[in-house]
Design a protein that fits this description.
The protein is built from six helices and seven strands. With about 230 residues, the chain is of the alpha/beta class. The chain has two domains: about 35 residues; about 180 residues, Alpha/Beta hydrolase fold, catalytic domain (Rossmann fold), CATH 3.40.50. The chain has a seven-stranded mixed sheet with strand order 1-2-4-3-5-6-7, sandwiched between helices. A hairpin with a 5-residue loop joins strand 1 and strand 2. Helix 3 crosses helix 4. The termini are far apart.
């Protein structure tokens, strides 16, 4: 009987160690993910490096954080586009894509989300808060006279695509959106990355519900069948 009790105690202790280890791993990962990373604040290039005219602008999100952006005007614009980077980048990493749209006749605004690039803040948002950064940038473009009555589109990459979709669902400022490789579930992605059987719920927003709420607007969804970072809904 004693041996069984000891064995049960050992098993319980091992389980607790695994749970505690997973909890600390999760905490460390989120701290890294959400924290300010100096490498992601470096501008890899400027629009002028690609021969693009531009001027800087800024916005203030509802929390009082400064959001930085570049405005790339097209010579004879037929519309405008707000472009949002993914988790591993900043506005400078979107310039290759931006150049294509400027050449196609669209004004392009590339922005840094909070705690990334030249924007303020010390904590990156993994959920709906990033959507507020985008909407604040749109308000700034309008109030400055850069964005007028031209159709406004949105383009987001990875986590920026999630933020853009949530922003578009909250407001009808975007006539259409392009979402490239949006993770449908941050929680599912985190389980794959950490290899843990369970991770806590995250304030990531309802992406499927956001897509469903935009049945009246065109959405171009770019995903790859073999992308290991995506989970389709």
């Amino acid at each position: 009987m004693m041996n069984r009790r000891r064995l049960a105690g050992v098993v319980v202790a091992l389980v607790l160690l695994v749970v505690a280890g997973g909890w600390w791993q999760m905490r460390a990962y989120r701290a890294y993910y959400e924290g300010r990373r100096p490498a992601l604040d470096v501008m890899r290039q400027r629009p002028s490096d690609l021969g693009l005219r531009y001027d800087a602008f800024s916005a203030t999100n509802p929390e009082g954080t400064r959001i930085s952006g570049w405005w790339l005007p097209a010579p004879s614009p037929i519309g405008s586009l707000v472009m949002v980077h993914g988790d591993g980048g900043n506005k400078s990493t979107m310039l290759g894509r931006a150049a294509v749209f400027v050449q196609a006749g669209l004004n392009v605004a590339v922005i840094d989300l909070r705690a990334r690039g030249e924007s303020g803040g010390e904590r990156y948002d993994i959920g709906p808060g990033a959507a507020l950064d985008i909407l604040a940038a749109v308000d700034a473009l309008r109030s400055s006279g850069r964005q007028t009555d031209l159709p406004l589109l949105g383009y987001g990459l990875s986590h920026g695509a999630r933020a853009l979709t949530l922003a578009a669902a909250q407001s009808h400022v975007f006539s259409a959106i392009i979402t490239e490789a949006p993770p449908y579930s941050l929680r599912a992605s985190l389980k794959r990355i950490t290899h843990l059987p369970w991770v806590p719920a995250m304030a990531e927003g309802d992406l499927s519900g956001a897509f469903a709420s935009m049945k009246d607007r065109p959405i171009l969804l770019l995903v790859g069948d073999t992308d290991p970072e995506l989970s389709q809904a």
